[in-house]
Amino acid sequence: MPRPPGTRAGVALLALAALLLVPASAAASRANVAALQSALTRLHLYKGFVDGIKGPLTRKAVVRFQRRRGLVVDGIAGPQTRHALGRYGRPRLGSRVMRIGNRGWDVAALQYLLQRKGYGPGIADGIFGGLTQAAVVRAQSAAGIGVDGLAGRQTIRSLRGHGPAATDPGPGRFLRPVPGPIGDGFGAPRAGGRRHQGIDFPVAYGTRIGAAATGTTIFAGRNYGGYGNLVVIQHALGYTTWYAHMSSITSWVGERVSPGTRLGYVGSTGYSTGPHLHFEIRRYNTPINPVPLLTEAVASSRRPTRETSECSAADGAGGAAAPRGSSWIARERLCKR
Q1: Top CATH class, 174-331
Q2: Which of 197, 194, 243, 247 lies closest to 218 in space, CA to CA?
Q3: 257-314 pLDDT per residue, tens
Q4: CATH homologous superfamily for 25-167?
């Protein structure tokens, strides 16, 4: 039977509209995927990174949860699965003004949006605490909206907006954190068949270390897996930079850093054979080769300054247990490099 006039044109217009809506819908769903991953993490079902990408690990965790609760097993977090998640599966993002003490799906989604923009808080656990409030304040200040530390619809809209951090199609670009040549490169062989997860700058003890890009400090302290004194900066687009073996640290968790902001000084703490800076770039916690992302500019070019807070040789041996309650970065043990 022939189609009525205009039917083909109408179908074509509907198809075009659907194509135009897909990117926006996909972008909006990333925060919900992150909230799902956070909920499944709290239920000890998901072991991956809260990155807003629904891959095999996320689907496997959903399937395990559905089987545990006697639900239809399809690997899709639909309304029934969300309801079964209880307090971890509600309320939806934008349904309330979030503040200190709130918990739930919307808080985890907010934390993901904040982290994606580079404001921190460095974790998406669904708990609105001090670090999340500080990240909201930074986001509100940057967006030029009312700064009150409360996350309502206007704040969420600004985080979902198409600013440079959200729409940059290419990889991030980073300054060199210290002057000098690169020593051991990314992927260099290590004992036990391991590979070097970053690059080394064999520079003088006490050399000033600068932040490689704009971001927020999410870890600043002693790492018990071999990195020694470590600073980790969260940047936009899922990137983090890691600065290891420092003699002393001058940054702090929650500090908003600019390119070149002083983070500390080169040392030889942790598993280290001599003074150098071990530098990593990770994307969604996966180490990647920093060299293609580095510019020729140096974040810090001041002369080395001798610091007195170097750990002893015994401390540098590493291997001690992390203090109770310390973060996963403090416990990180991927570093017998």
Answers
A1: mainly beta
A2: 243
A3: 888 899 999 999 988 888 999 999 998 888 899 888 888 778 764 443 333 332 333 3
A4: PGBD-like superfamily/PGBD (1.10.101.10)
